[in-house]
Design a protein that fits this description.
A hairpin with a 2-residue loop joins strand 14 and strand 15. The chain is rod-shaped. 41% of the residues lie in helices and 27% in strands. Its EC number is 2.7.7.65.
């Protein structure tokens, strides 16, 4: 409210004073010393704010300052504005009110000066901004909290992904670029299940759906396709958000870290424990385990399975004549030739010193015999160099096709009998085992 400078609050007529008292405005007028002297006017609601009367405040102006929090700092800001010649000064401070709570006030002060520029009166209008200040404080706290969480999300090495119920990406942290090569914005609105290997996607989708339906976190290891095409192993923890109103999950928060190196180490350790280092074939225990699993799988789909057992002819003579180093070269040569000649689904094992076996899924007895014959000719023609000498060797084969639900021991025995027959008939040949007697 603008008050004529000629009159000031000290000369207001009584009817104007009564009008001001009926107003909700919180007003005061004071001399240059602010509240410490010359309190010309104070509205009733301002006095009530600190639990006093107008008369008490006008007689003891310092009482007001006792309720102003950090009064010295507030006065310093006021006097700095007066010294700078400002005609309007805005102050913010807190008041300890009568009801025991602290209120935030905005004090707009009009400065009246005489012709020489000296301050003759300060007219203040206070506004209670407590609710606004509390809201601002909460907003600042929220913004500060958001900054902290954003700092964590943007700098943590693990990738953080937010997916909706359809599996589409709604947020990806910057670390996803180092993990999968994709910039975060390129993954937005993209189905993340599309980055999984095709044979893994249904299983992972089912696991996530089941975990979300029960509102339970899910930890799993999976592979995702890198932008460059290769797959990266990830250890992933998925946490579903269940809407309490609809009782349906709406979001999936996934935190993933790269475990590719660990998986490679595990794979290498598994290879060392299951693979013969000299020939690259499975060791006897691992091969027999695969053979049992292969026969069980074949029972479910009515698939043919054939077995080949072979060993190196006169291998003891090679070791006795040239030494074990020469024998190792021959074994390594057998392993290399077999690995290059076999299909991915064929299982190659070393089941004895110089004895090997092949499990051929989906192959008939005739198919197995043809493969064995190709290998026999290859072994017969190969030469192994050892200290300037060229060593040759031959291999004998026994072949058997599995009969209806025949067990591992029986199938191995029949193939072994075929090998025995090949040895007995002159070696360096393929012999088909007779069928099992009914």
């Amino acid at each position: 409210m603008d008050i004529p400078a000629a009159k000031g609050f000290s000369t207001l007529p009584s009817d104007c004073d009564a009008l001001l008292e009926g107003s909700p405005a919180i007003l005061y007028a004071t001399g240059p010393g602010w509240w410490r002297n010359d309190l010309h006017y104070v509205s009733h609601n301002l006095a009530t704010l600190i639990g006093a009367t107008r008369a008490q405040l006008q007689s003891t102006p310092d009482w007001w300052l006792e309720h102003v929090c950090d009064a010295q700092e507030v006065e310093a800001r006021l006097f700095a504005g007066l010294a700078a010649g400002e005609s309007r000064i805005r102050l913010y401070y807190r008041i300890a009110c009568a009801e025991g709570r602290v209120r935030y006030m905005q004090d707009d002060i009009a400065v009246q000066r005489d012709a020489t520029g000296d301050v003759i009166e300060l007219i203040g209008s206070l506004a209670d901004i407590s609710e606004t200040q509390v809201a601002l404080t909460r907003l600042e706290a929220l913004a500060d909290s958001e900054r902290r969480y954003r700092f964590i999300v943007e700098n943590v090495s693990d990738a953080i992904l937010l997916m909706d119920a359809d599996g589409e990406c709604r947020f990806a942290s910057p670390s996803i670029q180092g993990l999968l090569g994709h910039r975060p914005e390129t993954l937005h609105d993209r189905g993340l299940l599309g980055l999984l290997p095709p044979d893994d996607a249904p299983r992972v989708q089912r696991l996530i759906h089941d975990a979300a339906r029960h509102g339970e976190p899910l930890r799993m290891e999976l592979r995702m396709r890198h932008r460059l095409g290769h797959y990266v192993w990830l250890e992933t923890c998925c946490s579903p958000y269940l809407n309490p109103a609809s009782e349906r999950y709406e979001w999936i928060l996934a935190v993933a870290r790269d475990i590719t190196d660990r998986k490679h180490r595990e794979h290498r350790l598994h290879e060392l424990s299951t693979t013969d280092s000299l020939t690259g074939a499975l060791n006897r225990g691992a091969y027999l385990s695969c053979l049992r699993s292969g026969l069980e799988a074949a029972d479910h789909v009515s698939q043919r399975v054939s077995l080949v057992i072979f060993d190196i002819d006169h291998f003891k003579t090679v070791n006795d004549t040239w030494g074990h180093a020469a024998g190792d070269l021959v074994l390594a040569c057998v392993g290399e030739i077999c690995r290059t000649a076999l299909r991915d689904q064929d299982v190659f094992g070393r089941i004895g010193g110089e004895e090997f076996s092949l499990m051929l899924a989906g192959q008939s007895l005739n198919d197995a015999a043809l493969l064995a014959e190709r290998l026999r000719k290859k072994f017969e023609s190969v030469r192994v160099e050892f200290h300037g000498e060229w060593l040759s060797f031959s291999v004998s084969f026994g072949v058997a096709e599995r009969q209806s639900r025949e067990g591992v021991e029986s199938l191995l025995h029949r193939a072994d009998m075929g090998l025995y027959a090949a040895k007995h008939n002159g070696r360096n040949r393929v012999h088909q085992a007779p069928p099992q007697p009914i």
